[in-house]
Specification:
alpha/beta, 5 helices, eleven-stranded mixed sheet, 279 residues, Rossmann fold
Length: 279
């Protein structure tokens, strides 16, 4: 079975897959549970980012294990989904956004497969020594973003943007009003807790990665005196998750068989270690 498309998300995405089968994938970072199935006749791997029962908080997600597992199964393209807060009055709750760039404010996560000690191969990527992948000019795969943007138009999404800077925080708490003010000054449009280091790790394994952000709330301080609760976030998310499912289904149908982007060449010129270890 050819498994070239991966989807990372929560339980609301499960319903998309037909003939869903659970699988366990062994990685150097632990065992990762995924589900294989199909959408519109194309084979898909679905990975529940927070676990099947949403028991893994953002700061404890096995990001390296998750991305490695998808690559090991043959995935070349990843569509992720994220619930986010908005820092931009022009991107209100209920809107969808495709980030074109990100700012990283996480603190305690592991951001790289290239730790100077590892020596193994996954897909066509050899992981050894130290490597510095470039995140410019496109941190997110431009081809995949174009497909998702077209899918949003095709299914009639009324409110979406493909120009937004995503700010990732450590979590698990929501941000303070002062933090949001600072993020806005820096150019942030959206804020979430899970998009980094996913996007970086995908680039290190030469995978295409783009994310659909569902805006569930205005961030702290955007509305005077408003107190944010998880229940409010979940309410908006549940109201709009069907739209996200429609976009993903349409995008899978629009996706070309072969990649036409540069993501597959991400490791060219990236290795800084001069000599590959033997064995």
């Amino acid at each position: 079975m050819k498994l070239e498309i991966g989807i990372i998300g929560g339980s609301g995405i499960y319903k998309l897959l037909e003939n869903m089968v659970p699988r366990r994938v062994e990685t150097p970072y632990g065992t990762v549970k995924v589900f294989t199935g199909s959408i519109g006749g194309r084979n898909i791997v679905f990975l529940p980012r927070h676990g099947e029962e949403h028991t893994v908080p953002p700061s404890k997600i096995n990001y390296r294990g998750n991305i490695f597992a998808l690559a090991k199964l043959g995935v070349k393209r990843i569509i992720a989904t994220n619930a986010v807060g908005s820092l931009n009055p022009n991107i209100p709750p209920g809107c969808l956004a495709l980030p074109h760039d990100f700012i990283d404010f996480t603190k305690n996560r592991v951001y790289s497969f290239f730790d100077g000690k590892s020596n193994y191969k996954v897909g066509n990527v050899e992981i050894w020594g130290v490597a510095h992948v470039s995140m410019t000019p496109h941190p997110y795969c431009p081809e995949l973003r174009d497909v998702l943007s077209q899918a949003m138009s095709n299914v009639g999404v009324k409110c979406f943007t493909d120009q937004a800077v995503y700010v990732c925080t450590e979590g698990n708490r929501f941000e303070t009003a002062a933090e949001i003010k600072a993020f806005r000054i820096l150019g942030g449009d959206l804020v979430g807790m899970t998009g980094v280091p996913e996007v970086v790790l995908a680039r290190e394994l030469a995978l295409c990665y783009a994310t659909i952000c569902l805006v569930t709330n205005f961030a702290a301080g955007m509305i005077s005196g408003a107190r944010l609760t998880h229940e409010e976030v979940k309410e908006i998310f549940d109201k709009n998750i069907e739209t996200v499912r429609k976009v993903i289904k349409a995008a899978v149908g629009l996706m070309p068989e072969k990649r036409g982007c540069a993501c597959g060449r991400a490791l060219e010129g990236a290795y800084s270690t001069l000599k590959k270890p033997q064995g």
